[in-house]
């Protein structure tokens, strides 16, 4: 098979078009020895600069046939401007200067940026004018080039892939195919000869199974002269092939040495590659376990110990034995009935499947009695309401509680915050009984009732309110009044188990739903309550991805990591994003970090037609947030923020996190601390670890651990605010130094008062 090639650096377009070059192609070439023609004597100098003469023939084609306009054969292929893109393959060049020779203008009008002529791999330049040169063989320019590295060839490319608007072309009276009077290499004409060595590139190395076809690709072959090439393949098993992309199937397993020989007008070259034909072996599933858990609590399953003998990527499918299923190398699952479950992991390499079975033992959830707290003692006046508060009650198992108040005057209530007015002055025993559905508890308090006084205050909780999950919602009780003009106190119960104080409060509901917020106001003698409905909507759905496809590298020298945020299914407009409120956190954690202000709106990095918001996070903030990651792994992250006037948005996404290479980043929580904090750090290999605490003067005040043997991975140790002799450490700044198999690392901690 005959094949016309140049170089695949700008894609297979040039190779493809060259196989079917039309008869009206033109011919551009480089001359390195000043004789005005292009042949095998044109070589690049290795001991200094080479002067390249750039020529184009618009009258005849490479084969000597007459050239013609590809739109209207009667229109001459004149020249009034020219541009060229050159590519260094196999090394680099120092380019320039360029001297225009074509007599079209004494003033340069072609726009070549400095980067067009200083990049060591791609060069773009040209000249334009008002004069028109008739068809013929034209000397366009002289360009000096000097080899900077390697043994490069110089190839004439249709365009610069880094700047696609930079083209090899010439302006002409012919309309050309784009009707813009510009003849473009690779589109309007196809023949262009550079200078350098023919270099065969068979691609690879390749991998296959017996009987499967291997598609070989020799299109990366460098052919600076741009002429026809013959491709001859030896597949290493006695079979041969031709053409740039042959296919071949191997019958037996083994390693095969494959050769590609290319033959062009000025020489030949041979390149080699290897094909590994692997045995048809199923992947090996490893389900881990056995696993243990409790009813209604998530269990972590890890199948990442599964392997494939052929090194193929794996897909994972989990069957949890209770009709539940999941995918992924690791996953979580919650059982709601106790028992022993058979868990099956199936892994596939795309052709074969391996299975492994393990068990999950789920124990019943332990039942603990609730704890009743009646509050008080309470005081009030006859005829005025007293507000009772049972919100201090709790259930260790998290069960829903039912409340029963006995006020001591024959009245009862089943509310969490009941209000009751005693008619008579006196001391009353108040009993609160609570139940979690199976166990009960009670608490006793007292209510002291004095003589009647002025009118009770009037509570106004405002509302109804509408908000978004995880974003602060303002509740306003400023409409409350007291007929006597007394100063009021304000207490809120938000309806989600949380409470607060103040006339105007901000509260973030964790989950969407409908809640009843209760405001109680009191004037020192009596009180009243009011309720307001709160409707919390789910946050608008967003999609988040990293600009860097490799995920987040905590050890990168770049000061920031950029996350791109876009709405899902038009859930919001990117211009509605409050760029000051963008927060990144780990899923399930309570803390987060803020993006650098301001974030930028606009752009479409993934080219899906959706405008994005680019949020940058400081590298040191990411190291603090993700310092617990001990080895490259996928971490579930959450990005959320506010939308102007329309609530908020949130996105949960899996992101690859690569820890700082060869180091461990300790994380102290809380910091400042007193009396105790936890220190989380990681080691990349097994070894002994010591940790010491020093004061600001450099004096050792506590030895946390000394030469403790630790395996590679993540570790957690406790840090007390006490010295080596048991004395309490004064508040202030200290330095924690950890010495392990990766070397020393120091972090600053603070002891609070």
Explain the overall architecture.
The protein is mostly beta strands and 753 residues long. The strands form 13 sheets. Strands 40, 41, 42, 43, 44, 45, 46, 47 and 48 form a nine-stranded mixed beta sheet that branches. Strands 2, 3, 4, 5, 6, 9, 10 and 11 form an eight-stranded mixed beta sheet that branches. The protein folds into seven domains: 2-193, Immunoglobulin-like (Sandwich); 206-277, Immunoglobulins (Immunoglobulin-like), CATH 2.60.40; 291-363, Immunoglobulin-like; 378-450, Immunoglobulin-like, CATH 2.60.40.10; 465-537, Immunoglobulin-like, CATH 2.60.40; 540-658, Immunoglobulin-like; 667-751, Immunoglobulin-like. Helices cover 2% and strands 48% of the residues.
Brief sketch in words of this structure:
This protein has 753 residues and is an all-beta fold. It is 2% helix and 48% strand.
Defining key terms:
disordered N terminus, Immunoglobulin-like, 2% helix, 48% strand, 753 residues, 7 domains, mainly beta, 9-stranded mixed beta sheet, 3 helices, 8-stranded mixed beta sheet
